[in-house]
Amino acid sequence: MTLLEIMVVLAIIGVLSAILIPSMERIKLAARSNQCVGKLREIGIGMSNYFLDHGTTFPTMVAARESRDEDVPAIDTVLLDYVKDETLFQCPSDHAGIFEKTGSSYLWNSLINGQKMGNMDLLGLTESESGIPTVSDKENFHKHVGDGVNILYADGHVSRNLQLTVGR
Question: d(Cα 156, Cα 45) in Å, to the nearest integer?
Fold first, then answer.
């Protein structure tokens, strides 16, 4: 093999690396986002287990807490017995340490506190469980896949919704 052939092979490897490395990073970030969706689905299953013990009444919880030290009913304390794994409350894309500080990467919709499944009302805007959010990301952890947050709805489905921004 001549020096020129080696240089050509190295150039081809360099070009392929320049193309593949950014693609692999996007794939890894998308996988984390999908894991977050899976965790929200598991929280939804935990909510179904909660309903078995409490009828079809949603729990009364704070939307979020500032610190794990606060003694208030939060999603990670009220639903922990129903999901059995506290790491379900940590979004894999939460690199800001929100889970470590507050106990959850997710926000509870406190407007549904105490409401019964099948007889829900979100400020008169919708009565369909498929349109009523229950749990969402606390922040837009998934900017790499679009400007939005993952949301678990009362009927159990999870989707990514556009995040409204002010002053853009």
Answer: 8
Contact 87, 106 (CB under 8 A): no
Residue with tokens 């159990």: 156
* Token reading at 103: 């106990």
User: How far apart are the C-alpha atoms of 120 and 164, rounded to whole Å?
Assistant: 24
Q: Are 145 and 30 in contact (CB under 8 A)?
A: yes
pLDDT of residue 164: 44
Binned at pLDDT 50, 70 and 90, residue 49 comes out as very high
Q: Which residues contact 91 (CB under 8 A, 6 or more apart)?
A: 32, 36, 39, 99, 105, 106, 137, 141, 150
Would you kindly state where each structural domain of the chain is located, as residue ranges?
3-162
Residue with more model confidence, 14 or 105: 105
pLDDT band for position 162 (cuts 50, 70, 90): low
Task: Return d(Cα 157, Cα 44) in angstroms, integer.
Answer: 8
Whole-model pTM above 0.70? yes
- What gap in Å lies between CA 16 and CA 164, rounded to an integer? 38
> How many CB atoms within 10 Å of residue 137?
25
- DSSP-assigned beta bridge partners for residue 136: 107, 151
